[in-house]
Amino acid sequence: MSKMSNMMTEIFAFLLTICGWVLTASTVATDYWKVSSVDGTVITTATFWSNLWKTCVTDSTGVSNCKDFPSMLALDGYIQLCRGLMIAAVCLGFFGAIFALVGMKCTKIGGSQKAKARTACLAGFHFILDGICSLTACSLYAHKITSEFFDPLFVAQKFELGGSLFIGWGGSILCILGGFVFCLSLAEGFDLREAECGYNRATSFASAPQRPNPSTTLQKDCQDQAGTSRQFGRNAYV
């Protein structure tokens, strides 16, 4: 029953981490990391939005004009850092998914229970790093937006938080939660191994032949000799 519950827990953690990784990976290419609107008297005349790779403007007719960032070296430092963190998050989540498939108890690969527990813990460590990288990137980008928005000396166009940031935050939380559950598999694997070893020791002790006690054997021999001598004494007078 305990093994079945551990398997269900690992499957639940795997679903959490995969959903979080998919959300994190989709955030990299998603639009609307930051958005700003220019409103007219009746309708919105233009919407400006940007992500990690380009900046665009959409007019009231729905036509978008986009411009890729011209040079990676000429970008702001926070955009370069966010790019690196998000790419690292996607790579860590990919390797974490592979380690999770090998280390889960419901799969037939990975070796012994102890080895599978260590592999599952390694997968959890990758997913936790995945969530931390994505969370850091989205938070850094959001901090830049909010600091410019509330700065009274900033006279350029001000942006607001886009929907992609919230998707990235949600995926980061899912990856971190699932990663912690996978890390608990290491302790559960050692507990299960100790329980099996204890059961094997108890079984071997119960099935081992019982050795006779020397003192009990000696006492029985003395009683037999005394009984024989008394019988011999009664027969001597017949």
Task: Give a quick rundown of the structure.
By secondary structure, the protein is an alpha+beta fold.
Question: Secondary-structure map with pairings?
Answer:
Elements: H1 2-29, E1 34-39, E2 44-50, E3 54-59, E4 64-68, H2 77-103, H3 113-149, E5 160-161, H4 163-207, H5 214-235
Helix pairs in contact: 1-2, 1-3, 1-4, 2-3, 3-4
Helix amount = 55-70%
What about the largest sheet? Answer: 5 strands, antiparallel
Computed Rg: 35 Å
Give the beta-strand count: 5
Residue runs with pLDDT of under 50 for 5 or more positions: 192-206, 228-238
How many H/I helical runs?
Answer: 5
Based on helices, strands and strand pairing, what is the structural class?
A: alpha+beta
The topology string of helices and strands comes to HEEEEHHEHH
Strand content: 5-15%
Q: If strands are numbered along the chain, what order do they take across the biggest sheet?
A: 4-3-2-1-5
How far apart are the first and last residues' alpha carbons, in Å?
Answer: 75 Å
Overall residue-averaged pLDDT value: 80
Task: Tell me the overall shape.
Answer: elongated
Mind explaining what this structure looks like?
The chain has 238 residues and is α+β, with helices and mostly antiparallel strands. Helices cover 67% and strands 11% of the residues. The chain contains 5 helices and 5 strands; from the N terminus they run αββββααβαα. It has helices at residues 2-29, 77-103, 113-149, 163-207, 214-235, and strands at residues 34-39, 44-50, 54-59, 64-68, 160-161. A 5-stranded antiparallel sheet has the order 4-3-2-1-5. The protein is elongated, with a radius of gyration of 35 Å. The chain starts with a helix and ends with a helix. The model is unreliable at 192-206 and 228-238 (pLDDT under 50).
